[in-house]
Predict the 3D structure of the following.
Amino acid sequence: MTNDRIADTFDQIADLLEFQSANPFRVRAYRNGARVIRDLSEQLATIVGDDPSQLTSLDGIGKDLAEKITTLVSTGELSQLNELLDQVPATVLDIMRVPGLGPKKAAVLFKELGIQNLDQLREACLAGKVKELKGFAAKTEQTILNGIEIAAAANQRILWAEADRIAQGVLEHLRACPSIEQMELAGSYRRGRETVGDLDVLVVSQNVPEIMDRFSTLPDLESITGRGETKMSIRLHTGLQIDLRVVPAESFGAALQYFTGSKDHNVTLRGMARQQGLKINEYGVFQVDGEQETYLAGEREADVYATLGLPCFPPELREAREEFDWAASAGLPTLIELGDLRGDLHMHTTATDGKASLQEMVAAAQQRGLNYIAITDHSQRVTMARGLDPRRVRQQWQEIDQLNASLGDAFTVLKGIECDILEKGGMDLPDDVLAEADWVLASVHYGQNQPQSQINDRIVGALENPHVTAIAHPTGRLINRREAYEVDLELVMRTTKAHGKLLELNANPLRLDLNDVYCAAAKRHGIPIVISTDAHSVDGLDCLRYGVLQARRAGLTKQDVANTRTCRQLRQLIAGQG
Ligand code: DGT
Ligand code: CA
Ligand code: CA
Ligand code: ZN
């Protein structure tokens, strides 16, 4: 039992109690507990194993929660949760998860309108019944309808970073089988899609039962949904499905190619094969002569492609976008790699809402082999994060000057700011302050529901400000949680290019903003992309790889990304901005 699952359980209990209008203090106790547990670096299961009485020494964990943790760890379930689930229709849980709703609003919808599932909620919204309820303004009906779509999608797909965590655990678990000769993950995971629907694992082994038996003992397994001769499917507690296929060695490359997809890429590939009198499937590439089929390749993926006269496309490019055109003309771009990045140009410190100090962030960036960073704390408008006013930001920059003097030439800290673009337009800090910065990110955090023309004006205005360097998370979307704000990105890109500015690819796995499609568009406009983490902690600096994956899906090379340059070259690039 992982800490995350225990925390999820407590949150679920809190949701259900709140739905039943239970005592708010009780609800809060579970929520606090869940939060404490998520921030814990030590595994609760270990504490329970060593000495359960230690649990109550954790902040926010009282006697009651400690007992529940012990029960969860030792039995895997909690009778209280099962009882609560019996009292509440399961589909009501979906309603609570609609962004903007929650247990309390779900309870009102249930009591007043008898709404028990998402379909009924959608109908009630369309019929205009919801806005008549107390606490539901007219404006929220559209918000709820949008939220239903997001919730429906979110139920099905998980973030790539989450899939990666699970996938690595699955590989590690299966590696215990001595009979494994080869093993790879395929599907959308391998293509680096920002969200993953299910995981696809391929294995070569002479001992299929061994692999399948081992697969059925995965720690978070909920149920086995299918077991055939070569294919097995399971579901995890989280709802994620994992497909396992055991294939013969001579087909491994062909299977890897086939199950990596995408489906559209494979459709094009099959068409090309047919034109050459060949046949391609998950078993190999075959020469077809009437009834006769001769095996040509299949053991290695690269040979499968080579037999069709094609390069071995990096999985990130296999979306039937431009990859076949590239292969037929100038060749594939040499995609950017994590090691190409020399700096990280978006991060926060304890001066605002970061968890680590300036010095700690610098040390962590050095440890990760970077040559430079920009410290970009929030500006004053972001009151919730104690955003910096002119006095405080100048104080931080002074500190950075001193730090740089002690660091020598090997590492540079740029004096930056993540400056809000105000709701009414204009920057959140005066020009004379921004002029003293090395690196100014401009961000839309507030007023995201404004009409497109207004948001366009705000961003264009920021790009026209001579001190602004780049637009951070340019669309504001949060994957599975919040749609992008309305903005004309073509206009933004033309303006960005005209002023020699840059656009960010925010590498936070929840943002990945700009996405792959927009990054490719930015490249066509000749706009350099900056891949930055937006780290709010030392660990946050490890997110660069998610950004690199998205950049690769956009076909970006080292040259297309500004922070592959040396710090001096980067300064030259932004010196040309106007
Ligand atoms: P996902 O799981 O929704 O994130 O996306 P994928 O791409 O991983 O899709 P999935 O798991 O259904 O199948 C894995 C790959 O297998 C897919 O990308 C292409 C291949 N594949 C599966 N079914 C078909 C099919 O009916 N036709 C073709 N051409 N390829 C298929
Ligand atoms: Ca898949
Ligand atoms: Ca699958
Ligand atoms: Zn930020």
Remarks:
- The pocket of calcium ion (ligand 2) is lined by residues 187-188, 197-198, 200 (CB under 6 Å).
